[in-house]
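Minutes, methods subgroup
Present: GH (chair), OT, SY

1. OT presented the first of two proteins processed in the latest run. Sequence and structure tokens recorded below as shown on screen.
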Amino acid sequence: MLPFFDVHFQNASSVHKGGRNIKIQIEKSRELCANLINANPNEIIFTSGATEAINLALKGYVEENYEKGNHIITCKTEHNAVLNTCKYLETKGVEVTYLDVDKNGHINLEKLKNSIRPNTILIALMYVNNETGTLHDIKEIGKIAEQSDIVLFTDATQAIGKINIDVNEMNIGMLSMSAHKINGPKGIGFLYKREDINLTPLIHGGSQENNLRAGTYNSPLIIGLGKACEIATKNFEKNQDTLLKIRKYFENKVNEIPSLEIIAKMGKRSNNIVNLKAKGLDAHVFIDKSEGVEVSNGSACTSGIIEGSHVLKAMGYSDEECSNCVRVSFDHETELCEIDYFIKKITQ
């Protein structure tokens, strides 16, 4: 990224040689992003991150396709970027069905099928829950969407780089991600949009991103995103094996302590997130006072707000139980000694 802050500082939309050379690098980054999910490069739209991508996907699709219907199906445990966008769309006349989940955070696929109406145009379900690691069966949901001629959008922010994603095989129409979840820079991400899907842009101005996202390219961050995708693609299997070993080590340690409970323990989960309920623990005090431990009690977008997690509440946990919960996130570079340190701190 560094040369694009100073040496190659030109505007990538300019027609002079410096600008054209940077645009070539941006298009290389677009190709690297596409390779990670088996998409075509022209289906990648650079955004400021997953939140913007979600807004563009949901608002843009509804506005562009309103004559086809005005009903969206989503889930009560989605990220607030989806839930609050849906609440906004409801003020504009859109009907939204919020599916319930079980104790492990899974939706009932039969209830999903039964929720589909003649005016349903979009299913919006995240791949990996950002608080519990619970996996939705996106491949099966993709089949349901395809059978009903409905577009499937998935927030794959916590899945990218951790789970093998093939947007064509899974019939994913749109997908969002943020670079910082795969060790890239903050403030950049992309929306994958299948070529045959039309959106109304959120931002009007120039013709950047196929007229879907006007504004000067943030060249350094786009280059960083592309490199992060390249590394994630290259090291995918190795990182998967490492993450699985780390999670097993962590959960074996947790299982030795009777007062600790793994949320959604019996559910299908990713290897990078574990949510713990610790009886008698004030999660906010623990997070604030435990030096050397960086965990949270929910999404980073909401963890600064002291209230029960909407995800855990939807799974049947009380406000008091929510206050006893700590979300632990792993990376392939997490060391076992760091896990030992965390276990020691939370036990104390």
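2. SY then presented the second protein from the same run.
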Amino acid sequence: MKRILSFIAVALGSILMGNAQAKLSADDIMKEACEKAAKENKKVFVMFHASWCGWCHRMDASMNDEDVKKYFDDNFVIRHFVVDENGEKKDLETPGANEIRTKYHGDGQGIPFWLVFDSKGNMLADSKMRTAGEGPEKGQNTGCPAAEAEVAYFIDVLKRTTKLNEDQLAKISKRFRKNEN
């Protein structure tokens, strides 16, 4: 009987240990994404989001729309950092994501909040529209671009950070403008 109980205890312990794998930190995810981007000659697109965020789901749906998905996949290593979860979903959050969001002046901006990095981890763009002369701590978060000015800003970011052509950018613009409805 002791053998059976010992076997059960060891088996349960193994199962519990296997399920208790440590969650990757935001820093680890960034490191992996930058390495992959370097190998594939891409940029890194990071989106801060939460399970309850409707606009975050719209952003994902827009980027994954069959008419434009290839353009994003060909140009970016896309990663999601979970933030701002509530109650029992708090454990879904990406460890260290809030610190990165704060570092890039995204705290208090709402979600989705997104950043574009080169393969060395240098930030190239963020989701905040600014007027001339405003610093990185200023600006209005475009979140999931929908309004004309937001989509125009997003397209400008894509022009600066990818090799997408005018036709491809026009398709992306058209898709994101559907978010306003």
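Chair's summary of item 2: The longest helix spans residues 2-19.
Next meeting: continue with the remaining queue.
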